[in-house]
């Protein structure tokens, strides 16, 4: 997995969907993915790089560029950014030039981020939104005022889940 954070974990998700479809009657034209933190990174990665499999994504507090995340976590998997800039670029959702490895097919994305997040700072989401906007890709951004990496308030968490379900229904044509 070293140096291939994106490719390995994304392929795992594709294989899981394929395996489930072999066992259960799934509508493979309406597959969505949802995640938070690393899972948010993975959800965005799936929608951007494998829109043939994933048709919508809910992306919570995603790391968009590993150069901007905690070194003690990142360097364990990707090495040092100054020594392996190409590895960091290959594993980023976006680079300084824009979206990294994004397919031409466009899928909707809801991006959620706590503005008081001190783990994955909100700048990740703002940069991703800017890159998506520059390429004309549909997305919604839901900033959570006063929320850190995850909301501790039960009512807010419940309402947040309801908003996500509504987004997925709209995005997958289930209304």
TrEMBL record:
Keywords: Hydrolase, Protease. One of its GO terms (biological process) is proteolysis. GO terms for molecular function: dipeptidyl-peptidase activity; serine-type endopeptidase activity. Residues 3-174 form the Peptidase S9 prolyl oligopeptidase catalytic domain. Gene3D superfamilies: alpha/beta hydrolase. This is Peptidase S9 prolyl oligopeptidase catalytic domain-containing protein. It comes from Streptomyces antimycoticus.
